[in-house]
Amino acid sequence: MAAKSSYNRTECNPRQTGSVFRLNGIILAAGRGQRLGRDIDLEKIGPKCLLPIDSRTLLERTVSDLVSFGVDTITIVVGYQAERVQEACVALGRKYNVRFGLVRNDAYLSTNTACSLQIGLSGIHDDVVIFNGDVLYDRAILDDLLKINRTAIAVDNTKPLTGESFKVRILNSRIEEMGKTVPVERATGEFIGISKIAGRDIGEAKRLLNALVSGDPNNYYDFIYQSLSESGNLAYSFTNGLKWTEIDDIRDLRYAESIAGIACGARGRF
Questions:
Q1: 246 strand-pairing partners
Q2: 4: how many CB neighbours lie within 10 A of its CB?
Q3: Letter string b/e over residues 131-165, b meaning 16 or more CB atoms within 10 A of that residue's CB
Q4: Which one, of 233, 232, 149, 234, lies nearest residue 191 by Cα?
Q5: Which residues on neighbouring strands pair with residue 118, listed in sequence order?
Q6: Tell me, what's the pLDDT at 22?
Q7: Rounded distance between C-alpha atoms, residue 245 and residue 166, angstroms
Q8: Are 223 and 179 in contact (CB under 8 A)?
Q9: Which of 44, 76, 112, 185 is in the most buried spot, having the most CB atoms within 10 Å?
Q10: Where are the domains of the chain?
Q11: Is the per-residue pLDDT at 233 higher than 80?
């Protein structure tokens, strides 16, 4: 099952350029954020990527980072309140001189991130860095990930894990297990929702996503990395105590606000 895009890569403030950038960006922002929506009114804010943290949205923080790495085209997979994201992209496009391609997961209520990434990757053939739209992170984490010249994921190797953590077990430089069901005592760490797929692996990643979505539209895209690891096509970078958080509920949001002032390299501050 492949959800269709009703936007067909709608461009906001396109920039004319003769240059070809090898690094693309994808931000997954289709979800409704039901858990967080129990405590704050997301109907007024929009998707979680539009949450303001210390005066800037999560979306703007990620866009700023991508632009600093020479990315001039960013794909955003939208669904819930897509029009709000489109409006934000018009302003961000002008501010950062960047082009956005918005593609819509029309089935966002009945699918998961594998389906959204399948849509987002449809027109991409070169290196791409992928973000879950609800992640606040120290820019140094992204710096470390992009230093790796191959497909790679960022793994938190210091955070206390819980049953809800999307855990990773790494053995002999391969991912042996992945998912929330991995026992805490066996896990190496938690996948934080920031990753990179090298251009040479894009075709295989698309094939793996097609298989995941066909098997279960509610699958997480994260599982493609275990398959890529089995064939030796995956590396990883550890956060080594650098701060980050996904924002699933009100406690996550409060923590994100508490770390928003941590210095983070070229971006200046969170």
A1: 135
A2: 11
A3: bbbbbbbbbbbbbbbbebeebbbbbbbebebeeeb
A4: 234
A5: none
A6: 72
A7: 12
A8: yes
A9: 76
A10: 10-149+194-216+252-267
A11: no
Backbone angles phi, psi at 74, to 5 degrees: -125, 125
Helix (H) or strand (E) holding 96: helix 82-96
User: Diameter of the chain by CA atoms?
Assistant: 52
Do residues 27 and 62 lie in contact, with contact meaning Cβ atoms separated by under 8 Å? yes
**Overall size of the chain counted in residues:** 270
Span 33-51, average pLDDT = 90
Q: Are 238 and 140 in contact (CB under 8 A)?
A: no
CATH number for region 10-149+194-216+252-267: 3.90.550.10
Q: Which residue has the tokens 């793994």?
A: 155
d(CA 24, CA 20): 10
pTM (2 decimals)?
0.89
Q: Are 97 and 110 in contact (CB under 8 A)?
A: no
Q: Return the SS3 of 205.
A: helix
CB neighbour list of residue 262: distance below 8 Å, 6 or more residues apart: 138, 243, 269, 270
Mapping DSSP to helix (H, G, I), strand (E, B) and coil, where does residue 245 land? strand
pLDDT at 82: 96
Q: Which residues pair with 177 in a beta bridge?
A: 169
